[in-house]
Amino acid sequence: MNNKSRRILVDIANHPYEVVIAAEGLNRIGTELNNAGINSGIKVLVVTNPDVAKPYSNQFLESLKQSGYRTSLLVLEAGENQKNQNSIARIHDAAYSTKLERGSLMIALGGGVIGDMTGFAAATWLRGISIVQVPTTLLSMVDASIGGKTGVNHTKGKNLIGAFHQPKLVLIDPSTLQTLPEREFHAGMAEVIKYGVICDPQLFSILEEIKQLNNLYQMELGILEEIIGRSVSSKAKIVSEDEYENGRRAILNYGHTFGHAIETLCGYGKWLHGEAVAMGMVAAGELALVRGNWTQNESDRQKLLLTKFGLPTKWPRLNIDDIISTLKGDKKVQNETIRFILPTEIGKAKIFSDVTHEEIKECLKRLS
Ligand code: NAD
Ligand code: GLY
User: At residue 353, does pLDDT exceed 70?
Assistant: First the structure.
């Protein structure tokens, strides 16, 4: 990509914004904020964690300062188990002590955990101030940073507390992936494969054609940029059509219904979110198979692709009744009916509200 950048519009009514994918993006944050119409001179609170602060915060703050922004930095601890209301209180404390005003800005510099929490803190500080997302994991680049879902976990369920709060800008610098641990890189591939299954059969084929890699860093930069770009475009298109998930946006939750149950029952942080989603995709594929919605061949192709990118496909030991009761606590439950996103072919998925308990039990038995 060198000095080139790719710009993808999230065309949401009343508050459209761009996702900018740019090599050297971190050094361009000040310029990109200006391009997005965010005035220099305002106060900016950057929220991050030590894994990201160490390699990137100096250059990032420097770029902001050079463009005239008044910066402060909050470094929270890393991890899914930090995604709770205590962390939100810490961000609000920092907002108070740095005297953030209505016209100030928060920037999330990190993965999905930092992004979701900072977005929620911004949504609730002074009844809502601006947020910019600068994702540094593959998963947050292709999914979490786009679309305005923000929030934290409740002890009884993932992401139960939150708000929609769209960013003013998403800035992706793929070179930050160089420091990302391999396991996290794999987890991000789960969301990439998800787009292939639900809406982009060509992406699925591109992924199938990539030769077996010893590690994901061997992936050619051009291919990596292509799969990030395609994934961002899919997400941008879907959320532009349905900002508040009244309909089609729910297909983005493919793999998440079973995935959230795994994360909740096994303890937050044990399975990475992307790993749980991968396993959830296998489970949703099995359920689609039980119901005759897709074929054994499609289910096998999905499993093969997940395995190729180092993702788990073996269901953990869990009590079936516990799983069903956790599924019933999911956000997607309506009138006590669990809604499932199931594939109907590679590249297409639909929302189903008529899945019976017998079908769920049969699916879980086949997975166990
Ligand atoms: P994460 O934010 O926990 O990041 C993973 C790990 O990588 C952390 O330890 C982090 O410190 C480290 N890290 C981040 N960037 C790094 C870098 N460049 N170099 C080195 N280390 C780095 O996990 P994630 O997978 O990015 O996000 C998962 C979260 O995102 C979950 O809480 C999930 O619920 C949420 N999510 C939200 C949405 C949404 O639409 N809002 C969508 C998908 C997932
Ligand atoms: N990650 C699902 C969504 O943004 O709707």
Answer: yes
